[in-house]
Amino acid sequence: MFACIYVPDFPVQAVLLDESKERPCALLDGPESLLKVVVCNEAARSAGISIGMTKLQAEVCGVELWKRSPEDEDSAQAILLDCAHGFSPRIEVTSPGTVVIDLAGSERLLGAHETVAALIKDRVEERGFETNVSIAANPDTAHCAARGFRGITVIEEGDETRRLSPLPITVLEIEPDVLEILETWGIRNLRGLAALPEIDLTERLGQYGLQLQRLARGATMRELIPAGLPTVFRESEELEESVELMEPLCFILNHLLEELIEQLIERSLATDQINIELELEAYADRETNALPSRSGLVPYHRTVKLPVPVQDAKVLLKLLQLDLAAHPPHGAVKKVAIEAIPARIRYMQAGLFQPRAPEAAKLEISVARIRAVIGATDSQGRLRVGMPALLDSNQPDHFQVVQPGSKHLRHAIPPEPQLALRRFRPVIPARVELNAGQEPVWIGFLQQRVQVINASGPWTNGGQWWDAKGKWLREEWDVDIALDGNNQPSTYRIFQELTTHRWFVEAAYE
Q1: Are 236 and 336 in contact (CB under 8 A)?
Q2: Helix, coil or strand: residue 23
Q3: What is the rounded distance in angstroms from the CA atom of residue 482 to the CA atom of residue 489?
Q4: DSSP letter (8 states) at residue 226
Q5: What is the DSSP letter of 189?
Q6: Bridge partners of 434?
Q7: From the CB of residue 163, how many other CB atoms can be counted at a distance below 10 Å?
Q8: Lesser CB count within 10 Å: N end or C end of the chain?
Q9: Kind of pairing, strands 502-509 and 421-434?
Q10: Is 363 helix (H, G, I), strand (E, B) or coil?
Q11: Which pLDDT tens digits describe the chain residue by residue (510 residues)?
């Protein structure tokens, strides 16, 4: 079943959203020198207003005249979509002021069709609209019924032709030339259109005429064209008095986050990135040296990213609190705005009696706390907390720390080794004696001097020759040595830095 929300005279209601709808009102559009009435409400029509009147003609009728506002219509349409998303994630914006909702599965949650229609109508009227709501087995029938019948209409499957028959043909939004032809035939309502012979109608009006007849009979079936989701959800609040302490600021953030999460949940979405924008009462930002805007306030931005999408406002609030504690704003806060980047919910199968891993949200809070204690970066600007990512290099231990979910994260599958290589971090300084063939014969490290039983090498390895600071060049050897107390020889990896001629023990084979 499908529900249709239809707001009559939608542009007028968008202008009078918070005012009485009984006031006669007409909207003007066009060049300033030739403004004409493009839409009016029922009270204005009763006062003599008709579409196409000039401004001078409309002023004689004594109604309120407003300039049509696309901004007000966009805002009203967004409110209408919010109402629709509260009942289903699949909705279609058929036209401005008209929304079709897919009610599949809603009976178990909301009750019978009449109950669902009443709930939808109450929700929309709470937001300031006068609306018609209809429910039918296909979206086109629901659309026609909402345009033609006042209040709530429920059409059961199989009863579409009879219920639609008394409606005028204008509910189909027919092209003007075809409408004129139908009127010359004496077709005034959907009953007459539905009764025409299909073949004769097709010969005269083509497939368009046949489609109109199917609409009149309520016999069409099509898929909804889902409305696109917003790319960002935003909530803001301008404070009467500036806030300097973290506790009152977190109270405001909590309120805005709860509003955002409620909007996301209504659309079956979550978020994995929160952007916070603060406007500070300061002359300049100490870190970014940002200049004040025209209002005299300095913008301050922070971003919190999560590895997995969440729908928990408390988790987001804690992450924002830790981030702002580590990077406090340098001034009193006058305005707060929060943006949530929507993301699909990621479903994971947990264990039968306990989770297979720590909850992602709790893990992220723990990581944020660690980051707040030890710092986000070191003296060289490298991250201290995150996940290791291999770099595109043959240099041993050449990796970087990145945030979870970073695009720089690479998962390399190393070849299966014959032996396990246990690296020493840091490498162990050593002294190596070479024979006439420049092969290691004695090694001294960790206060031991042992003889080399077998040696294999050297293998030369190097890179970054174009960078004097990052250049590295080394010769590697695999050697068998017998340490004190061990009867069996052990295999070690040693290498010599050719730039400094120093030797090191890098790893042991196990």
Answers
A1: yes
A2: coil
A3: 4
A4: P
A5: B
A6: 440
A7: 21
A8: C
A9: antiparallel
A10: helix
A11: 899 999 988 888 888 877 777 788 888 888 888 889 888 888 888 888 888 888 888 888 888 888 888 888 888 888 888 888 888 878 888 888 889 988 887 777 778 888 888 999 998 888 888 899 999 988 999 999 999 899 899 988 888 889 998 999 888 888 889 888 988 888 888 998 888 898 988 988 889 889 989 988 888 888 888 777 777 888 888 888 888 888 888 889 999 999 888 888 877 788 888 999 988 886 544 455 555 555 567 888 888 888 778 888 888 888 888 888 888 888 888 888 999 888 887 766 656 666 555 566 677 777 777 777 777 777 767 777 777 777 777 777 677 777 765 555 555 455 555 677 888 888 899 999 988 888 999 899 988 888 888 899 888 888 877 777 777 788 999 999 887 766 678 889 999 988 888 999 998 888
Task: Tell me the residue length of the chain.
Answer: 510
Cis peptide bond prior to 426, omega within 30° of 0: yes
CA distance 466 to 475: 19
Describe the strand order of the beta sheet including 298-310 as a list of residue ranges. 233-243, 332-344, 269-281, 298-310
- Bridge-based pairing of strands 387-390 and 472-481 is unpaired
Q: In this structure, which amino acid lies at residue 203?
A: E
Instruction: Give me the amino acid identity at 118.
Output: A
Whether 83 and 122 have beta carbons less than 8 Å apart is answered as: no
- Token pair for 507: 């790893």
